TrEMBL record:
GO terms for MF: ATP binding
SUPFAM superfamilies xrefs: P-loop containing nucleoside triphosphate hydrolases
Domain ABC transporter: 32-278
Region (Disordered): 1-28, 276-299
Keyword field contains Transport: yes
Protein name: ABC transporter ATP-binding protein
Keyword Nucleotide-binding: yes
Gene3D superfamilies: P-loop containing nucleotide triphosphate hydrolases
Keywords of the record: ATP-binding, Nucleotide-binding, Transport
Pfam family for this entry, one: ABC_tran
InterPro entries: AAA+_ATPase, ABC_AA/LPS_Transport, ABC_transporter-like_ATP-bd, BCA_ABC_TP_C, P-loop_NTPase
PANTHER family linked: ABC TRANSPORTER ATP-BINDING PROTEIN, CONSERVED COMPONENT OF ABC TRANSPORTER FOR NATURAL AMINO ACIDS-RELATED
Length: 299
């Protein structure tokens, strides 16, 4: 175990690591490095030699038109998709294919495109599922159906309620997700990701289905989180991406076509050409010129 490995809670200590004051040992210090990532699905090259680094405490945006390869790269980062070629390291250690339950132990949490809550569990139970990293009884005993200690259960419940409260969804703890408005479900999904106090948060289209004011709140929240963790953000809403990201990588047809700060990316003609195809088409239409490459949409 390296010096950056997560401390194991000692016997007698509380598993709830939510100190009142911001603690320095939780300052973001780990980076995710993806180098030369190539993914082929049969004959389809979904990604071709894509490289990016999510720096500690930064929000890294991943954008591009539909089918650009964003979710595929996201799934590589989650360990769901194994790259055909390329290297990936997290905290300086090689990151290989993972089972979903192994992510939390590595300090990584994610939310998926859509919501992905368990319909048969209450909101609180859904969020408690995300807290496995801190439960001393652990996955092994859950697997063997050994009774988890009452104390672990209480601590887990407290952590989950605190995460819900941070996202203003505490009052829905006893409800089932299906009966809640979509934006509330998205907040619950985010609470489930945050309850494990991750060092790396992977978000695939967190703003989809949100109204303008909710999107604004989400932006503020992501900025706040970046003080505690690194964030990889896949998102179609350009205003949100430009507002919250420190750096942005732009994909088109599986290739990286631009990378840099929001200002650099916005000024890059390759991005305008690829990603803002709609606007270009509109301008060309207005100018009476024709296009031969077909329209593209983004969102
Ligand atoms: N499991 C799969 N099998 C075969 N092809 C796939 C698979 N997953 C993705 N692809 C293909 O890989 C390419 C990239 O898809 P991906 O879903 O990563 O794009 P995306 O940028 O997330 O698009 P969107 O904006 O629509 O979410 C597309 O051509 C897609 O059809
Ligand atoms: Mg996608």
């Amino acid at each position: 175990m390296g010096p950056l490995a997560q401390p194991t809670p000692t016997a007698g200590s509380t598993a709830i690591d939510r100190p009142a004051a911001p603690d320095t040992d939780r300052a973001p210090s780990a980076s995710l490095e993806m180098t030369g990532i190539t993914v082929a699905f049969g004959g389809v090259i979904a990604l071709s030699e894509v490289s990016l680094v999510v720096e500690p405490g930064q929000v890294h945006g991943l954008i591009g038109p539909n089918g650009a390869g964003k979710t595929t790269l996201f799934n590589v980062a989650c360990g769901i998709v194994r790259p055909t070629a390329g290297e990936m390291t997290w905290r300086g250690q090689p990151l290989r294919r993972l089972k979903p339950h192994q992510l939390a132990g590595l300090g990584i949490a994610r939310t998926l495109q859509g919501v992905g809550l368990f319909p048969g569990m209450t909101v609180l139970e859904n969020v408690m599922v995300g807290a496995h990293r801190h439960a001393r009884a652990g996955f092994g005993s859950a697997l063997l159906a050994l009774p988890r200690s009452d104390r672990d259960e209480r601590e887990l419940r407290a952590r989950a309620l605190a995460a819900l409260s941070d996202l203003g969804a505490e009052q829905h703890a006893g409800r089932y997700p299906g009966g809640l408005p979509y934006p509330v479900q998205k907040r619950v999904a985010l609470a489930r990701a945050l309850v494990s106090a991750p060092d790396l948060l992977l978000l695939d289209e967190p703003a989809s289905g949100l109204a303008e004011d909710e999107m604004h709140e989400l932006g503020e929240l992501i900025r706040t989180l970046s003080g505690r963790m690194s964030v990889l953000l896949v998102e179609h809403h350009m205003d949100l991406v430009m507002r919250v990201c420190d750096r942005i990588t732009v994909l088109d047809s599986g290739r990286q076509i631009a990378a840099g700060t929001p200002a650099e990316v916005q000024a890059d003609p390759a991005v305008t050409e690829a990603y803002l195809g709609d606007e270009v088409t509109a301008e060309e239409d207005a100018a009476g010129t024709t296009r031969t490459d077909g329209g593209r949409h983004h969102g």
